[in-house]
Amino acid sequence: MVKKQSTAYVCTECGADSPRWAGQCTACGEWNVIKEIRLGSNKKNKVNLSGYAAGNSEIKLLSHVDLTQAERISTGYAEFDRVLGGGIVNGSVVLIGGAPGAGKSTLLLQTIASAAAKGLSVLYVSGEESLQQIAERAHRLELDSHSIKMLAETSVQKICDCLEIEKPALLIIDSIQVMYSSDSESAPGSVSQVREAASYLAQYAKRNNTSIFMVGHVTKDQSLAGPMTLSHIVDVQVILSSTDDSRYRVMRSDKNRFGSVGELGFFSMTANGLKEVKNPSAMFLSRSDKPSSGSVVTVLWEGTRPLLVEIQALVTESQYGNPRRLAVGLDQNRLAMLLAVLTRHAGIMTSNDEIYANVVGGIKVTETASDLAIIVGIVSSLKDKIIPVDVVFFGEIGLNGEVRPVANGFARLNEAAKHGFKRAIIPQGNAPKVSPKNIEINAVSTVLEALAVL
Ligand code: TYD
Ligand code: MG
After folding, report:
1. CA of 246 to the centre of ligand 2 (A)
2. Torsions phi, psi for 171 (to 5 deg)
3. Is any ligand 1 atom within 6 A of the Cβ of residue 106?
4. How far is residue 253's CA from residue 265's CA, in Å, rounded to a whole number?
5. N or C: which end of the chain has fewer CB within 10 A?
């Protein structure tokens, strides 16, 4: 047992505990973020926890546990439902992160308006904006605001008192960072306050089968402020972020107890609020009519569906001794590895060139299927040879210069064919017995072969 103490040192960025004050947090590496906080007495904390303990301590056989609880409500957006794993699970706590202006409040207002229209009882708790501001937004978006209940409050105890009376099925907390729990003695806005407020609400949600959406702010590097603390408490964590084209928003799940992570949802911000994008490949492929060297299209697999994206490479002679290699949206190490493969197995030297590789649209590539497209893009820019706009590439590249198959090859080909691509250069291992209509397939097994096909 740790000796009882009345103060603790906590990182305000990630919430990690530290035995003493330090200049740098050992957990997240940030500087000047360790703060001393006063702890409440243990006794008091115990009373609070037992008040909202989830369920009673009866032992059950796993096979006898009710499965009926996992009923899902639609958000009204197919894209949002997809990211959540098929809709909102009853009694789940969802954290929505995003930079200011990402559209979190707009999205949630539209979501509860849709839920209210289906006859669900909903409550929107705003701690940031005034009720007038929200009413004006609802009016502008032409939402039916008759059955949307609003509350301007930042104390979780007072909110829970209202919840006991209202018993809403869906609750919005905008935002969790401004909420405070009167049980906690640390300053409002601090990590321990946010953590306590969030766990208080989460316990309420579990006991009463209320689904909660909490809005959270993200820090510069797109991680949620106090991420470690909140991730443990919530069931689902999604981030809403802008793409390079500021109209579009991408939603990604980082954690999901009820579905797969890494699932993407696409939206566009219009004058009438947030609309879902039904065909995201088209959105990322809005290329200029004039083809240029270094530009190649690949098919990524994002969550449970294929996505066509353009990859651009630029190779220029270096003016300095130490040429730069810069990857945007790609792994820097992966780029270095591909360049080494190019040198060793295709005899193409790039050691004196500056190399830039970029994924268009602000998407982050997390899989290896784009390897072949990156290599082709680099060679295309180096030799100043244009790749025809109707050719698509995918495949992983190994250190021996081999082109390796990737998962879901057929679905990727189908997506490319659907968007009018006439030719696909793909790994031998992905070559289908019957190819999709209107697309010619060139299966290759080495990098050299792939370059020769062109
Ligand atoms: P908001 O939902 O307030 O973002 P967040 O809660 O994530 O901070 O709104 C984000 C931006 O969207 C804001 O800059 C204005 C813009 N917007 C539109 O373009 N159209 C609309 O219909 C609405 C409501 C907002
Ligand atoms: Mg907001």
Report:
1. 17
2. -125, 135
3. yes
4. 9
5. N
Q: How far apart are CA 112 and CA 107, in angstroms?
A: 9
Please name which of 15, 45, 50, 51 lies closest in space to residue 33, comparing C-alpha atoms: 15
Residue 273 CB–ligand 1 contact under 6 Å: yes
Residue at 36: amino acid letter = E
Distance of CA 30 to the CA centre of its chain: 22
- ∠ CA 413-416-421, nearest 5°, is 120
Output DSSP code: residue 6. Answer: S
Q: What is the distance in A from the centroid of ligand 1 to the CA of 106? A: 6
Tabulate helix, strand, coil % of the chain (nearest 5): 30, 30, 40
Query: From the CB of 100, is ligand 1 less than 6 Å away?
Result: yes
> What does the pLDDT read at residue 115?
94
Highest mean pLDDT among 7-11, 176-180, 377-381: 377-381
> How many angstroms is it from 217 CA to the middle of ligand 2?
9
Task: Report pTM.
Answer: 0.77
Q: Is 265 near ligand 1, meaning CB less than 6 Å away?
A: no
Helix (H, G, I), strand (E, B) or coil at 7: strand
The average pLDDT across 120-138 equals: 94
Give residue 69's pLDDT band: very low, low, confident or very high (50, 70, 90): low
**What is the CA(95)–ligand 2 centre distance, in A?**
13
Q: What is the pLDDT of residues 289-320, one digit of tens each?
A: 678 899 999 999 988 889 999 999 999 998 87
The CA-based dihedral angle spanning residues 328, 331, 335, 340, taken in that order and rounded to the nearest 10 degrees: 160
Residue 55 CB–ligand 1 contact under 6 Å: no
Cβ within 8 Å of residue 166, ≥6 positions away: 121, 123, 149
Cα separation, 226 vs 13, in Å, equals 5
- Amino acid at site 209: N
Pairing of β 353-359 and β 305-317? antiparallel
Q: Is the Cβ–Cβ distance between 366 and 262 less than 8 Å?
A: yes
Share of the chain above pLDDT 70, in %: 89
* Pocket lining: 139 vs ligand 1, CB cutoff 6 Å: no
Listed residues: CB within 5 A of ion ligand 2 = 105
- Residue 33, ligand 1, Cβ within 6 A: no
Q: Which two tokens stand for residue 130?
A: 């005034």
pLDDT of 92 above 60: yes
Q: Given the structure tokens 């990604």, which residue do they identify?
A: 252
The more confident residue out of 282 and 253 is 253
Q: How far is the CA of 98 from the centre of ligand 2 (A)?
A: 9
**Is 217 in contact with 100 (CB distance < 8 Å)?**
yes
> For the residues of 169-187, what is the DSSP string, one character each?
SEEEEE-GGG-B-TT--SP
